[in-house]
């Protein structure tokens, strides 16, 4: 629980490029400063008697901007009925993920198995980020039009890795080091379906954990999808919390948009 509280306390203070962060006490709210990007609400600690009013407050805020937003719910949020209340209000619940952490002091060099001719290396130039975006869109079969700008915004405090079949990018993952933070964040770890089962995902993970150890960061955190959780547990990551993406769509919208 102490580690969970440390994570929540630190993340409440985290700025996001091109977003206005407001710590309202009851939640932290991020409003985009650019177009075609969704907002975010997270880290709720709301008195039960104020919950309905608080939910409507944020709906009105983002409806006034004519954009959707994600309310990211944690099991450690208060009150415990928050998810149910959001669903009652009209939010769409996405796939639950596990917030997992890794103690880099426990990291040991990995014995790399045969990757079937795939080379995993650091991405050295920002013009390669377009390939990372294209890869994510191919794997998840949806648009990530906002992703290039986001990756560019963390370039100077992140490390990016790609897995290559000759010159073709077939897997990617990056690690972000928010300034002054004790928790680094893993993002993106994904591999094209045809190249899975060769240890590429594990090697992308190992590269990033090793990078965190070299940089002297104690903890690495990741929101893990159900498919990734068993692999990460086998590598020593431990579950801290469960998160639920709750989507509020702009008025008149019938399909979900990704932030």
What does this 3D model show about the protein?
- The chain has 259 residues and is an alpha+beta fold.
- It has two domains: 101 residues, Aminopeptidase (3-Layer(aba) Sandwich); 140 residues, 3-Layer(aba) Sandwich (Aminopeptidase).
- The protein is 28% helix and 29% strand.
- Strands 1, 2, 3, 4, 5, 6, 7, 8, 9, 10, 11 and 12 form a twelve-stranded mixed beta sheet that branches.
- A hairpin with a 6-residue loop joins β9 and β10.
- α4 packs across α5.
- It starts with a helix and ends in an 11-residue tail after the last strand.
- The relative contact order is 0.20.
- The C terminus is likely disordered.
Keywords:
259 residues; alpha+beta; Aminopeptidase; 2 domains; 12-stranded mixed β-sheet; 7 helices; 12 strands
Could you provide a short overview of the structure?
The protein has 259 residues and is α+β, with helices and mostly antiparallel strands. It contains seven helices and twelve strands. It has two domains: 2-96 and 243-248, Aminopeptidase; 102-241, Gcn5-related N-acetyltransferase (GNAT) (Aminopeptidase), CATH 3.40.630.
């Amino acid at each position: 629980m102490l580690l969970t509280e440390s994570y929540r306390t630190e993340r409440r203070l985290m700025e996001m490029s091109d977003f206005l962060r407001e710590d309202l006490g009851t939640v932290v709210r991020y409003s985009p400063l650019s177009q075609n990007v969704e907002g975010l609400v997270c880290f709720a600690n709301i008195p039960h008697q104020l919950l309905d009013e608080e939910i409507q407050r944020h709906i009105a805020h983002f409806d006034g901007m004519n954009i959707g937003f994600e309310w990211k719910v944690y099991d450690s949020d208060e009150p415990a009925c928050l998810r149910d209340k959001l669903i009652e209000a009209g939010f769409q619940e996405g796939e639950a993920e596990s917030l997992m952490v890794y103690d880099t002091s426990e990291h040991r060099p990995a014995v790399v198995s045969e990757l079937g001719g795939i080379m995993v290396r650091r991405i050295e130039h920002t013009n390669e980020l377009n390939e990372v975006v294209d890869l994510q869109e191919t794997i998840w079969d949806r648009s990530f039009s906002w992703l290039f700008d986001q990756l560019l915004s963390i370039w100077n405090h992140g490390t990016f890795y790609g897995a290559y079949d000759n010159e073709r990018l077939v897997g990617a993952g990056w690690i972000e080091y928010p300034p002054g933070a004790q928790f680094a964040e893993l993002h993106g770890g994904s591999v094209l379906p045809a190249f899975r089962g060769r240890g590429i995902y594990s090697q992308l993970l190992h590269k990033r954990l090793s990078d965190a150890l070299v940089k002297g960061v104690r903890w690495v955190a990741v929101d893990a999808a159900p498919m990734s959780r068993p692999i990460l547990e086998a590598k020593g990551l431990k579950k801290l919390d469960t998160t639920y993406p709750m989507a509020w769509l702009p008025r008149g919208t019938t399909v979900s948009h990704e932030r």
